[in-house]
Amino acid sequence: MQCKERSSGSSTATSSAGPVVAMSDEMSVPLLPNAEAPDAPPPMAPGRPTVAILGSGDFSRSLAVRLVACGVSVVVGSRCVKRIAPGLFPDAVELKNQEGAVARADRLVFLALFPEHYPSLLGLRALLAGKVLVDVSNAEKLGRSRLSNAEQLAEMFPESVVVKGFNVISAWTLQTGAQDGNRQVLLCSDSVEGKNEVAQLARRMGFHPVDLGSLCFAQDLESVPLRLFPSWRGPVLATFLLFLFFYGYGFIRGVLLPYLANGHNAFYRLAFDLVNESLPAVALVTLALVYLPGLFAAWLQLWRGTKYQRFPCWLDGWLLRRKQLGLLSFLCAALHGVYSLCLPLRTAARYRLINAAYAQVKAGVEEPWDELGVWRSDLYLSFGVLGLGVLSLLAITSLPAVGNILTWREFTFVQSGLGYVALTLSVTHTLVFGWNFAFSAQAYVFYMPPSYMLAVALPCAVLVCRCFLLLPCISGRLARIRRGWESTRKCPVSQHHHVVANSTCPEV
Q1: Exposed/middle/buried for 237, CB within 10 Å: 0-12, 13-18, 19+?
Q2: Whole-prediction pTM value?
């Protein structure tokens, strides 16, 4: 029977009342939610334990190479030993049939087989009794309702201990060893002793074991390798839809309607101009979407008067996707910068330059100079470069290798403080680019405002809301709420505050 209940931790974005003692190692955070790292078992006893691997495929070979390098005796069991090519396994690995390999194993037996071949091992049930069977298989597809592979294995071999693990480790990682990439080995089993034995072996191999609980979590664990960027789907879809909106809006306003109304052919703008106009609009709106959920959370806490209520699921999920939205915003801004640098290389740009020079000569103008236009171009280019630079810093610090060397206060300053600076510079870049176009009737072709006016609306609203939160009367109340204070509507007990050692302590 599968477990249906999963413990859920609080998702409310709150700050602890006490000082942060130490920052946990990033490897202590499991790949799956609601997972807890096991207590460190005693180190594996010295010597050369013998481990059996049933199967002779790529994963079996990589696992054997890694185990031999860690001083473990390895016996590989195959249904047909003769078909194994010479030199495929290290010389230190013994090659036997499945029965001989199981007999040689001290305790651990890895099943590097596809689940459909598990029934072929039923004849070894007596030999496998008392052994720890490590199931490394994965699910065939997501969303299946039947028992997991590990649970089916446990039913086939009730006298053995089944441990689910090593299925999220690739064959390449096993061969190269645990380095900066995937170091976590997720484990689950109904036997604490069996998990401890596999965890000791994983540590000996240089990996970090993470205990997910009982065997009923095996189905979630088997689905991990099948998930393709699960946290990126929503942000990517939102960014793509925004791009389609701005691109379609620009096409209708600048290409289709002029052609239908005046017969003006501007379809050449589809390949470059419309893309370069859509990218900054998408980058600006996406960057605003990074900081909008934080404002929603702050105003929600102010309205509730407490931090101890969970956020709605949609807001909780939005808060967890801010990093992905920020990186996609940086991607669109960087592409806009590259497209802008390529503007002078276009054939259309050269034709326009020649036509402008011809018109100047024909009009008898020797040295044209537009003071207002020069200031406008220099200012919006400067703000754009500065905004892209700060946004690049945000993208770099979001990388785990960089973010892990920062303290929490430093990371918050960069991601929140400098993030609003990047948003302000980007909005200023857009407003200076528009200058007084927004007040000109010529800008509203077919009664449709330019794309940048639509793109700047949401970021401006975000900045205005942020300014309201900085007011002392609001920021002070929000700070008290996040330190544990509750309004009388939520906590009717009288809360008198008194100052102790220069800190405000609520009396509840």
Answers
A1: exposed
A2: 0.71
